[in-house]
Amino acid sequence: MQQLIVELGSRSYPIFVGSDLLPTLANTLQSSLNQQIFIITNEVVAPLYLEAVKAQLGARDIATFVMPDGEAAKTLTTWSEALDALLATGFARDCTVLALGGGVVGDLAGFVAASFHRGVDFVQMPTTLLSQVDSSVGGKTAVNHPRGKNLIGAFHQPKAVLIDTHFLTSLPSRELSAGLAEVIKYGIMADAEFFAWLEQYMPALMALDQRALTQAIMRSCRCKAEVVSDDEREHGRRALLNLGHTFGHAIEKAQGYGEWLHGEAVAAGMAIACDISVEQGHMLAADYERVLTLLRAANLPTSAPASMDWDEWQQLMLRDKKVQGGKVRFILPRGLGDAVITDKVAESLIVKAVSRQRG
Ligand SMILES: NC(=O)c1ccc[n+]([C@@H]2O[C@H](COP(=O)([O-])OP(=O)(O)OC[C@H]3O[C@@H](n4cnc5c(N)ncnc54)[C@H](O)[C@@H]3O)[C@@H](O)[C@H]2O)c1
Ligand SMILES: [Zn+2]
User: Which residues form the 3-dehydroquinate synthase N-terminal domain (predicted)?
Assistant: First the structure.
């Protein structure tokens, strides 16, 4: 098992990463778990792992809330139902809310933890690669609103994050690839050496080699933790984590959420961002080719749907959260391992990059 700390002063917390952590769960999380534990999971994950987790929690008081699967359940209604169930247990403010599931469960459970008694302890056990390398770290919790994704939520850091790569053995391969897009993102935006490591180990990761997965998750979490420690509430640098996301969100919206997985759209978005960087004279053409090759090795798309026209792109990008003062802010790589936030990009370059089909 490996461990790293997210440094946030008195709210610092450990992330544990390893390949078979369930049997020693209680020991590992000892100081982070209270006597009363409210587990939030969903109907896909519960039959796979809930009993095994409960069995490890020993003589604690445990109650469970099983939510429906999918993004559509990340709502105020589900949040409210979870709170009803939590209140019915009689648990007090010194309980722990434990999220067992992907990013949807983690975001909703985190918001339950943030709001019950104005904030109770929260522990994450992320079960998708995306949640293991991204959503479980950093303290953003949220539910969706009919007017948009993640519009209602709070910052609420967990007490601990326990990442067991064994969970990934049951994950659909498309979901694995979608998580790998965020892993590749860290390499492009902040760590050229990690990018090179990924080039070498992508086949192992795709084959669920547990040691390679532990390594990739550790490095991804370290990168995210470092950015979050520096800029917890996204006043500046944390926005770099959105590399590929302005284009990606536009693709997700154009296709209707659910058609493209988030990570797939981000992969195409990163290819577009790198394309622009090459045209601007920053990224080397050879490095751009390396990015495309790595995305393909992870079974990820490298172009937006050809059906999206420029009008649609403009409208969708202007609705993105990263718009400030009517200007779209882009996160663009400068080269491998470095990225900047900028609103100075010639429109002609964007038009060309979003419409380019990369085969
Ligand atoms: N808080 C943040 O900082 C942050 C960052 C990125 C994304 N997010 C949020 O995360 C969510 C996406 O998370 P996700 O990609 O994990 O999606 P998800 O939670 O919907 O999980 C994907 C699918 O895999 C299933 N699943 C989960 N674990 C499994 C396992 N071990 N074996 C088999 N199936 C499993 C789920 O039931 C679901 O059907 C979005 O709502 C997004 O907004 C939040
Ligand atoms: Zn993302």
Answer: 65-177
The per-residue pLDDT for 321 is 67
- Residue bearing tokens 């690839």: 177
| DSSP letters for 310-333 | HHHHHHHHHTSTTEETTEE-EEEE
pLDDT at 44: 98
- The number of the ligand 1 atom at minimal distance from the alpha carbon of 49 is 31
Instruction: Give the closest residue (by CA) to ligand 1 atom 8.
Output: 135
Which structural domains are found in the chain, ordered by start?
2-170 (3.40.50.1970), 173-355 (1.20.1090.10)
pLDDT of 322 higher than 70: no
Residue 274 phi/psi, 5-degree rounding, is -70, -40
Dihedral (C-alpha) 323, 327, 333, 339: value to the nearest 10 degrees? -70
Q: For residue 293, say whether it is annotated as part of any ligand binding site.
A: no
Indicate if the pLDDT at residue 347 is higher than 80: yes
User: For ligand 1, what atom is nearest to the CA of residue 42?
Assistant: 37
Find out whether the beta carbon of 102 lies less than 6 Å from any atom of ligand 1.
yes
Q: Is 135 in the pocket of ligand 1 (CB under 6 A)?
A: yes
Ligand 1 binding pocket includes 101 (Cβ within 6 Å): yes
Q: Determine how many CB atoms are found less than 10 A away from the CB of residue 192.
A: 14
